[in-house]
Amino acid sequence: MWFFARDPVRDFPFELSPEPPEGSPPGPWVLHRGRKKATGSPVSIFVYDVKPGAEEQTQVAKAAFKRLKTLRHPNILAYIDGLETDKCLHVVTEAVTPLGVYLKARAEAGGLKELELSWGLHQIVKALSFLVNDCSLIHNNVCMAAVFVDRAGEWKLGGLDYMYSAQGNGGGPPRKGIPELEQYDPPELADGSGRAVREKWSADMWRLGCLIWEVFNGSLPRAAALRNPGKIPKSLVPHYCELVGANPKVRPNPARFLQNCRAPGGFMNNRFVETNLFLEEIQIKEPAEKQKFFQELSKSLDSFPEDFCRHKVLPQLLTAFEFGNAGAVVLTPLFKVGKFLSAEEYQQKIIPVVVKMFSSTDRAMRIRLLQQMEQFIQYLNEPTVNTQIFPHVVHGFLDTNPAIREQTVKSMLLLAPKLNETNLNVELMKHFARLQAKDEQGPIRCNTTVCLGKIGSYLSATTRHRVLTSAFSRATKDPFAPSRVAGVLGFAATHNLYSMNDCAHKILPVLCGLTVDPEKSVRDQAFKAIRSFLSKLESVSEDPTQLAEVEKDVHAASSPGMGGAAASWAGWAVTGVSSLTSKLIRAHPTAAPAETNVPQRPAPEGLPAPAPTPVPAVPTTSGPWETQEEGKDTEEDSSAADRWDDEDWGSLEQEAESVLAQRDDWSTRNQASRAGQASNPGHRSQESDWSSWEAEGSWEQDWQEPSPPEPPPEGTRLASEYNWGGPEPSDKGDPFAALSVHQEAGAQSRRDSWGDDNWEGLETESRQAKAELARKKREERRREMEAKRAEKKAAKGPMKLGTRKLD
Fold this sequence. Notes:
Pfam families: Pkinase. The structure is a single chain. This protein has 31 helices and ten strands. The strands form three sheets. It has a five-stranded antiparallel β-sheet, covered by helices on one side. Strand 2 (30-36) and strand 3 form a beta hairpin.
């Protein structure tokens, strides 16, 4: 039946790597690389082949097997599995590299920093302290060959072959018989008279001194070389000299050696060692201590080794977020460590945490995620963005904190290329329309316009045709001057997305109205854009065959490459105006310096909360989003004005209807669309969905002036009275300074006859006329009643007291 016996080596769940062993330490063991058959995870396998006539070596190997299996300490080589047969011994440990091989490889790559060496020596001394003070064991083999390094750069103490008990109950130290190991024995071992006066740790501390010398100077040629410290750091030399002193009684205990080196100015007193010590005890630290540690960790990561950050810091950060409620403080160090990961590792370790963070209701975490989205957006795939991230991000558009609304708008520049048709062309446009129309912060309205100009190339052709012209036209009537500039730049950035008919009938009339804007920066950009559009029209007029080439992008599908012009035309707005936004809506003046030509007053020091501050330089208008009372009065009228795309204008004057039909062909397209809807009641076009957004603000809702306008408060200055960062005002008066934003908007609405007429003004005047007529009738009726009473009183005379009225 022995024929059916199983081979234990073949059934062992670990297998050796076919590569030859590297840097095996002197002694009975041979170090191999290996992996676990089930998972493929890397391991190290120490192999000892039993040879006939080597019973002493076999007993040493079996003793080492037993010691390694029973000793558990973070700084001692971690045992995973083992196999013992009559022919061999296999010991499986964590994947490690011999210290000699590791130092050689790092020397070729530039060498180890003192920070790494200080922590490595700290770990070895701590392992010796555990053996001597807690276990009463003498290692008896401390040298370069007994130290190994794992993938995180942690030093592990191995080589337990010649270990013995310090209490003497297990006999004396075993004989090594290997010259490479015996050269590290202290000098007192050759003198039997000194055995009675030495401490139990004296021999291991001498060997520790030899290890320190080899780490900084290379292989130890002979014991006499220990007298010359060589490259050992000056802060470590006094403590090193104690280790290699001739008197074994003076050599310090490993615990006291650590205490001496951790003293102020000591070799092991540095940020790297303190960080590692904190990470080892992080599970028992208070939440306040963890918060402070993670806040300071990001500053130190740049000086830490890459392997340490990937394999030790990163797992602790993930654990702290998952189970420790660390919150937003882990984001900055987490993304900094993420730079060291490959794309596959990033997907496995960082992305699941990021997706979970987006669902958090913590405002600090949400705003930090939005601010640092550029660091991880490349690793997010489109299904993840559309189903797990975008639904949470859009909540920021409705947040009461303006800083979150601003960062949400800016994050759309990164998310737009990954959004699907519905999220980009419907959901996002709805929020942008509401922000541009109703947000009380001028800089946020400005950044919304800028963002729309930058992502315009990703929109579908239908959405571009319906949204861009209306949105940028509305921006040109914003009372906030940078918003008007952004509207002009938006037209310029998306110039290739408009037909020649739209350029002539819709865009140029809007831009020409801005040539008399009170702000010079607006006028300059308007003239620049007008020249650009006129040159296109002129070139097509000279050569009509160029029309197809000029309009090739108008009906083209969304394409990332079409947005190249946006970067050159509107690139200033994201850096300059976004920092301007920060100054206006954040309480702390730590935002990036504004690069725009429109500087604002910095936020005052000491405001505790990021409450939005009003913009004193720009006179505000009581638009439909500013006063709730006026919005209630004009809700019906403004709603009707918003739905000019699909309303039946048959009740309007025939003359106005014919003018609209002559200026462009919008009305014919809308009538065709309405006819199609009438023939198919169950079908809802996308345009009808767009028109249903008037409750939250739509692109077609124009800037409407209140009637009559309220005078500004005493002391209010117009926008033209401020110097917005341009050249110093000269003695010569600005011919446009007398124009106000209110006059400009009113004049512009009168000049624009291509669809944005202010129908509300007509109905408001009609209501006022009816109210005046009713008031006059009541006054006449009152006078008639008074006249009749006077006539009766005069005819009958005064009545006497106590008499009864008979009639």
